[in-house]
Structure formats: structure tokens, C-alpha cells
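Exercise 3.2. Students should predict the tertiary structure of the chain below and write it as C-alpha cells, then compare their answer with the key that follows.

Predict this chain's 3D structure.
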Amino acid sequence: MLADTAPRPRDDGLDDVDDVQRRQNVLNTELLNAELPDQRFVDESYLHWLYDLNPYGPAFQAWEDEDGVRVAHYALIPQRYRNADGPVPFVFSLNAVSRSGAQRKGYFGMLQLRVWSAARDAGILAGIGVTNARSHRGVQIMGWRMIGQMPVDIVLPGPFPPRGWQSFRVSPDFLDSAVFGEVSQGLDEQPVDGWTNCWTSEYLRWRLASPNTPPYALHVSDRLVAVSTRSQFKGVPVAVVLKLLLRRGMSGPVSGHPAVTEICRFHRAPAAVYAGFNRHVKVTGVPAPERLKPSPLNLELCSLSDTIRQREFVLDTYEFLDMDAY
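Answer key:
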């Protein structure tokens, strides 16, 4: 059984980080942990992974200091999204934060202008963010458009273990293994009507190497690859479905319930949480009560190009692993 919150060990490469770059990660980590406490910010290794090691390039960042203290910060993480015409450069917006007492000094608008100008100059076509009710109001003022809300469902497993599934605990050794190399090739190459995040083998390997986060598991059948983790609610274990990907050569839609059953079996959990939607893999559950959700998961889009029209933009697939929830 996976531990609830034990972080995964990994070689974070911090010894090779430039001193200036490392100092910025330290200052940003302190600010984020002060305002958004999370086990990911126990040290700078998480931001080093997130900002510096992305295979699509380093994060776009902007920050502000007062008297040597970091008081505001904002970052955009490079991603690739594809539609019927192929992949294009996107970013994921996150970690927009001001220190308590500095919120009314106009830092958010100033930092947003800096960071989005840098992204536009680098050829980024659009950005996606996931906001709560409070930050939703802020980004609307800046010209973002709400695409919709991510649904969150409680899903029960089937009564019997599914056939043909293998499950693996994700570790540095596993991510370097021939097994991972084989199962991660050609994922999510199916035709799309709208837009979807690109899950190349290199990008998935990087995403699953996230430090200071609950351990991931990978589940494999001849049709699907699924990613999960384990959480708990009031002491009861709950499996969390993070990503469902069709394997190369498969076509959908297919049922995701065998994957949910295998995930619950692996984590010894009586139920699973699935958030999002998937054009190729269908999961049906019971909507989670609003009182159990930490906040609405508002999907927001900011276009930087005439080729991405905000009012016409449609996502085919979006799940927990596409964002930074886990």
C-alpha cells in the first residue's frame, strides 16, 4: 500500500543549479509556503523540478521584492497542446501569489504584464489556468475566458479484479526502466476535435518525477495507461485517478471503469475520485458534493494569438495530471 503523503525520493540535481537560480527558487519557495502552505514547498527541489527541468524549457517568471523580501511572484509553465493541425506551444499559469499585507499594491497586474509579455515574445500561443472563485474574478478582469468547470465524481470499483492489468509504483528507477519506456511510447496520439495536452514519453517521465508529492502509480493494460495516487478523506483511503491515456494503436471511446477498479484494488481504497473529462476514455460516477470540494475548479484560457480564439476554444480532454493539483 502506498503511503498517504510520503514524498518520492529522487536525484533533484540541485548541486548543478546556478547560485542565482537557486536563490530565486529558495525565495519563491519561502513565499509560496508562507501563503499557500503545502508539503511540496518543504524545500526548493519542487520549484527546481517545476521551473528548471521541464523538457519544453524553463518557466516564465516574474517577481517583486521589498527590502530584500520576496513579496509577489507569478509563473507560467511551458506545455504543448495539439489540435487537428498539430502541436503548438502553450503555458500553464500557476503560483500567482502576493505576501499577506501586499495584496493591494498592484503586484498581480504588474507581474502578469511582465510574464505574459515574455511568453508572447517567446512564441507562446495561449495559456490555461485553473482558478478558484476568488482568483477567477481577478483573471476575468485581465481578459481571460472561463472555459468551464472541471467536474469531480466519486467512482466505485467493480466487484472483481479486472483482467490483463499490471500496476507499478513510480520511482526514479522505474522511470528509467525499459518497461516505462515501452508503455509510454505513442500515448494519446488519437485524432482530436478540439484541443488536448500532449503526453510524450519525455514529458510524462518529467511529470511523474515531481518531488515532495504523494507517490504516483502507473497502471497498464493492452488498451490503457492510467496514472493514480492515494489520498484520504476523514481517515478513509481514497484512490485518485490522475490521467487516462489510450495506448498506441487503440481507438476510443473505451470504458475507464476497469482502470478505476484496478486503481482502487492497488491502493486498497473503497472508491476513487475522478476530476475532469476525456473524449477517448469514459468514466461515470456520482458528482462529489460541493461541500467536499476544496473550491471550484474553473478552467480558464488566455489567448496570445489570433489563431487561438477564446470563444471558440474547446478542450477534448482535461484531467488532474494536466494541472498541478497532485
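Discussion points: Helices lie at 19-35, 45-52, 107-121, 133-141, 172-175, 178-183, 201-208, 257-267. DSSP finds eight helices and 17 strands in the chain.
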